[in-house]
Amino acid sequence: MSAEAIEAGRTALGIELGSTRIKACIVDAADPARVLAVGSHAWENRFEERTWTYALDDAWAGVQAAFAELRADVLARHGVELRTLGAIGVSGMMHGYLAFDEAGELLAPFRTWRNTSTGRAAAELTEAFGVNIPLRWSIAHLHQAILDDEPHVPRVRSITTLAGYVHRALTGRAVLGVGDASGMFPIDATGGDYDPELVARYDELVGGRLPVASVAELLPTVLRAGEPAGELTPEGALLLDPSGALQPGVPLCAPEGDAGTGMVATNAVAPRTGNVSAGTSIFAMVVLERPLERVHAELDLVATPAGDPVAMVHCNNGASELAAWAHVFARFAEAAGAPIDDDAVFDALFREALAGEADAGGLLAYNHVAGEPIAGLDEGRPLVVRTPESRLTLANLMRAHLYGAFGTLALGMRVLDEEGVRLDRMFAHGGMFRTAGVAQRFLAGALRAPVSVGETASEGGAWGIAVLAAFARAAAGGDARSLSAYLDEAVFADAAQSTVEPDPDDVAGFAAYLERYRAGLAVEAAAVAAL
């Protein structure tokens, strides 16, 4: 049956360009919960000339490698060649800055979400707009380039995100899903387009310094989930599959950001639902039932792929430092003559953390590899800090690192608590949650709320964008359900999940940890200044 669906093109492909892996995932379009094959490719960002970036040639090499591995997986699992698809979706890291000239040539190195060099621009735009404009948003990067009189600015004719760039190369269409678009420029209250009042304000603010009449001319067209977004061109098919086996003409859904696909992958697109996505960065998305009362520097106001308003707590630093420590212990095991694989290392260390004291024994771990705006840091300096009275054990060290991965996130979530925002469901996904009951338990204690992890957690955003592609295919076939109803009924109706309630000792222990963590940010700032 699976082989027949693949050969007939009754499938949906999701491609996600994440911060450390480019993944490809095919699902059965009639049953999107069923993953048919996967492929992936590792890549890393670079810190060049004080800018976090990726080379776009590396992006295409990674996309092609992931697709080739996917094709091989299809053949191995189902005994058929992958030649056609029912729908395709592309997802990527949100925000950042990709600027192109009239001929579509890149004008400056890709500036990712991780860069914190846009402070002056973000502050000026926040004041002008009356809404928080984070450092990583595309409009902040464009405005900073204008303020700095960068020589490429007069030649800019379009800007987009990583997902928007790949989608345009595959289809020829400059479009973007509303969730990703909301990280480029503020979206209006209906979730249908860029806010026209703020577009006019920005045009007035820059006073002719733009190379076009209006900033709106530079931005991709906004689409909601389910709306058609173009077809795979012959050139796009060869970009994706240089072997020439993949046939063009496949419809694509609107490209989305990894935050939006994370919401889909956790069925958190309805009001009073939320999700936490943990990877190189870590962020929480909470779907709002009413507008927030005040502007908060810790919160982005973005949108679900369907256009509903979302409060986002985005932290530049997630699990990278935790992974670095795990690699140290893996090397120790190898040097001691007892090598174990990476998954076993993480499993052992995470389970050891369960034996740690509730407040991590007085230890603090800061995971700031890069700058962290919520913590007031322009640059990062990973640190482990303790006093002479702290209890340094492996269990406490690992609990401190897990707590540290959630530290900045918890600072932002406390702001939502103060706004009276309530949640019925909080879901989590990402590799941190593969060891059952550890990171999930500590996150529940940090957020003081139940946290659920589903069986699709490790598939992540590549699966989420595959589901959005399947949704667009269903909508094109006459399915009139909302995205929320489609997820409830067609995707998650039979999905298994585990839910962990916050443990009172963990809640109290993390609160004590967070109090010290907040005070210790002065140590982080001193380290940035001194080192």
Automatic annotation (TrEMBL):
One of its GO terms (molecular function) is kinase activity. GO terms for biological process: D-xylose metabolic process. Residues 275-472 form the Carbohydrate kinase FGGY C-terminal domain. Residues 12-259 form the Carbohydrate kinase FGGY N-terminal domain. Gene3D superfamilies: 3.30.420.40. Keywords: Carbohydrate metabolism, Kinase, Transferase, Xylose metabolism. Pfam families: FGGY_C (PF02782), FGGY_N (PF00370). PANTHER family: SUGAR KINASE, XYLULOSE KINASE. Belongs to the FGGY kinase family. This is ATPase. It comes from Agrococcus pavilionensis RW1.
